[in-house]
Amino acid sequence: MPEVKVANLAKRFGDNAVLHDITFTIGDGEFFTLLGPSGCGKSTTLACIAGLERPTGGSIAVGTATFVDAGTFVPPEGRNLGMVFQSYALWPHMTVAQNLAMPLKIRKVDRREQDTLIAETLGRVGLVELKDRYPHQLSGGQQQRVALARALVYSPSVLLLDEPLSNLDAKLRDQARAWLKRLQTELGITTVYVTHDQDEALALSDRIAVMSKGDMVQIGTPQEIYETPATAEVAAFVGRCN
Ligand code: ADP
Ligand code: MG
Predict the structure, then answer these.
(1) Against a cut of 0.90, is the pTM above it?
(2) 18, 34, 193: residue to mutate for ligand 1 pocket, most atoms within 8 A of CB
(3) Distance between CA atoms of 168 and 160, rounded to whole angstroms?
(4) Has residue 189 got a pLDDT over 60?
(5) In the prediction, which pLDDT does 242 show?
(6) Ligand 1 atom closest to Cα of 36?
(7) Nearest ligand 1 atom to alpha carbon 38
């Protein structure tokens, strides 16, 4: 059901046009990655889907809900999306359980239901025994899992992940990558993933959208992107320099 449709998305900051004409559709349950070098507009695209930035043109819809078009702008709290950013931004003065409770309180979920959802979600990410710890008492990898748990606890229709692994060291990153992929497959949750790391994109994605300087250059499966890059730039970027 939660098909994500982004059509002719444009975004300007002042007179700096950072997204020109971005169009893509993501199927239900798909792991879809926006890949491209730093500054190409990946985070801005994700922020527009989240409602954190207001596009200057185009439309965004999830399932039957229109979030953005010429006459519509649904604020972030009306979109039921889960988000994890590069910096996990857990609330430092709250325990793991309290961090997960916050989005449920905002949604006025009753207390008993909160406890059930928190226990369930912590079980899913393997953190039940850490529920009373504070963020500074957790490793980077554990903090990242808590951030993901907090994004999942209210059953969002779509998960938005902006370089969630980039603060981890290389070894942890490989583990986290495998774990993230397993979890996403298990949950079957539609995921929009942002990274500048080609290996990560190739390993995780059902499909990859390659961006360059605010334009969409190519959309395809990892195999298509790798074997038949649309431009020399894509070829160079995904590691095929013929
Ligand atoms: P990426 O995530 O691919 O690295 P971004 O979407 O963060 O790229 O940035 C795309 C361009 O938009 C960059 O040139 C960046 O400086 C600019 N930009 C992003 N956010 C803002 C903002 N809030 N105000 C002004 N310029 C911005
Ligand atoms: Mg970014």
Answers:
(1) yes
(2) 18
(3) 18
(4) yes
(5) 46
(6) 3
(7) 4
